């Protein structure tokens, strides 16, 4: 009997759990809300470009290599995203103050305004959806969503001090 005669059946990935299915459905909805909120503020900004703005808004000025690492993309892809944002006046690249003299990418005032407007629009759109959920399930999943985002490495979004959860 040759080494190829005893073939194994391919290993099938486990069936997704109900939790994973629920998160996938919610993610589709949130992606739609995200796309609409960006489009309502500036139709020329893509979702990946907006993600660059969010990274810079939460972490401050970064070398291009750190932007690429945060996005999980190649340096060339990060360069294209940043170049588009530079052309739009939403970010700038300047000489860094570090020992290695790497240029850093930082958000402009216009970029910060875009992030604030889009975030405000998203928050409003999401609040409208949440308002339609009965109180009891709402309180249960808020903690679960915070944990999900935390273990996924997503920083908390700062919110105005006067708005309750």
Summarize the structure.
This protein is mainly alpha-helical and about 160 residues long. It is about 60% helix and about 5% strand. Strands 1-3-2 form a three-stranded antiparallel β-sheet.
Molecular structure report:
The protein is mainly alpha-helical and 165 residues long. It has a 3-stranded antiparallel sheet. The protein has helices spanning 18-41, 47-59, 64-71, 75-87, 109-131, 135-151; strands spanning 62-63, 91-95, 103-107. The model has no long low-confidence stretch (mean pLDDT 84). The radius of gyration is 21 Å and the shape is globular. Helix content is 59%, strand content 7%. A hairpin with a 7-residue loop joins strand 2 and strand 3. The chain has 6 helices and 3 strands, in the order ααβααββαα.
Indicate the structural class: mainly alpha
Percent of residues in beta strands: 5-15%
- Roughly how much helix do the residues carry, as a percent range? 55-70%
Rg, nearest Å:
21 Å
> Which regions are unreliable across 5 or more consecutive residues at pLDDT < 50?
none
